[in-house]
Write a structure and sequence with these properties.
There is one protein chain. By secondary structure, this protein is of the alpha/beta class. The protein has a domain of 170 residues: Phosphoglycerate mutase-like (Rossmann fold, 3-Layer(aba) Sandwich). It is built from eight helices and eight strands, in the order ββαααβαβαβααβαββ. A six-stranded mixed sheet has the order 5-4-6-3-7-8, with helices on both faces. The chain has a two-stranded antiparallel ribbon with strand order 1-2. β7 and β8 form a beta hairpin. α4 crosses α5 and α7 packs parallel to α8. It is globular, with a radius of gyration of 20 Å. The protein starts with a strand and ends in a 5-residue tail after the last strand.
């Protein structure tokens, strides 16, 4: 068994089962985590897959794997990964942007008189934070960064506690700071994309997202721009946006793939 973290997505295939149901399988490029990685402290034990699903596990050379695959769709996935490697865009670092989980309404927080800095998560928001923790351990998040306001900190706290990580507070990411000076938020995101060497997550407020995604778009090729949120609210509460950053053959950092997920709670 290997402990791995997700990297950039490699594609999705769909096919019809014998019972008529449509099955969908999504593939990611993965990398192995060292045994001391913080994400493994946060990761629950994983139940082994049914033997009815997996006949055998083998490591084989690439050329042999392409011959062994009987599905054209599977061969296309593997070919896509080979192209990523050829272009120098296989080795990527996820930069994960999170809008804080569901918080108490401003008008309801201490009858509308509570401070924005201390406005807390709702019960649903706390459940969303637990789901987000599972998503972050899947990507192997090692650096945890946030606006210091309570609703952002509490969104990442379940993962930080489980992984034994300290949340790095960035005061320039608060709504108040952004309303006075927008450039520091854009600069912070640009720096994360340019400098990230390990998976980093940052928790943000909705008003800051126009500058945040402008910084992501500036580091993305034109073909990827349509997948980057471009209008309000950009992300819903508790939603994650994953920008996979590559340094193709020593060139400047570039976003080469993106994903977007909303935590599912009961």
């Amino acid at each position: 068994q290997l402990n791995v973290a997700l990297s950039r997505p490699a594609g999705t295939i769909r096919y019809r089962l014998a019972n008529g149901l449509l099955k969908e399988v999504t593939y990611w490029v993965c990398h192995e985590l060292e045994s001391s990685h913080p994400a493994l402290k946060a990761r629950p034990k994983i139940k082994p897959a049914s033997k009815n699903e997996i006949d055998q596990v083998l490591w084989v050379p690439l050329s042999e794997a392409m011959v062994m695959l009987t599905s054209e769709q599977d061969r296309e996935v593997l070919g896509r990964v080979v192209d990523m490697w050829s272009d120098g865009k296989l080795d990527t670092t996820p930069v994960i942007l999170v809008r804080h989980a569901r918080a108490v309404k401003r008008s309801n927080w201490q009858k509308g008189k509570g401070t924005e800095e201390t406005r807390p998560l709702t019960a649903r928001g706390k459940e969303q934070a637990k789901v987000i923790a599972r998503q972050l351990d899947a990507y192997g998040a090692r650096q945890v960064t946030s606006s210091p306001w309570l609703r952002c900190m509490d969104t990442l706290q379940p993962y930080a506690d489980a992984a034994h990580l300290r949340i790095i507070e960035r005061p320039e990411l608060t709504e108040h700071a952004y309303s006075k000076h927008k450039k520091p938020v854009a600069r912070a995101v640009r720096d994360l994309i340019r400098e990230a060497q390990e998976t980093v997550v940052v928790c943000l407020h909705r008003p800051t997202l126009p500058s945040v995604f402008k910084s992501v778009s500036d580091r993305s090729p034109n073909g990827l721009s349509k997948k980057i949120p471009a209008k309000d609210p950009y992300l819903k509460t508790g939603e994650l946006f994953v920008a996979h950053v590559a340094h193709p053959y020593g060139r400047a950092a570039q976003v080469v793939a993106v994903e977007q997920y909303r935590p599912t709670t009961r």
